[in-house]
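Example noted here:
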Amino acid sequence: MKENSGLLIIISGPSGAGKGTIYERVLTASPNMRRSVSVTTRDPRQGEKEGIHYFFKNKDEFKKMLKENAFLEHATVYTNYYGTPQKEVFENLEKGHDVIFDIDIEGARQIKSKYKDAIGIFVMPPSFEILRERLVNRKTETEESLLRRIGSAKSELAQHELFDYIVFNDTIERAVEDTMNIISAEKNKISFNKEKIKKLLN
């Protein structure tokens, strides 16, 4: 990690854990933080803007970027491709901005394999019973999809060693505070401040 570089922060966890809400609140509370902007081959939805919500490309353009190893992570969702261009991420990090991701387990794994300094935070409700209750309260799940999501959550939690921290989201306020505290602690590590310490000693 270069002197004065930012942190790359991964927020992940099962559907219903609240990771999206934590991601948005941490981003809003951190003026120096930037969201990762993905490339997608799907059509823009109403209100979406190029370079803010996504970079919109056709499939040939995406495949060209893939051959050029331009992505920090990528995935296929149904018939569309998604990927995070590493150029923009690393430019922001070098400028001293923190970059935050709201991403699934596989995306987190890809990022960790390419950028060893990434900070992985796994968000989880205090219990699977509470997770089930939250999913039920959405009123968007069938019993079959509910069981599938709970099974996926258990599978994801079993891969906890991929991450550096776990935040138990019992209340969103406490979970956001815990996440902010993790980021603050990372910024105060000796390993993150070696150059500053050298300057002080000289």
Remarks:
- The chain has a mean pLDDT of 93.
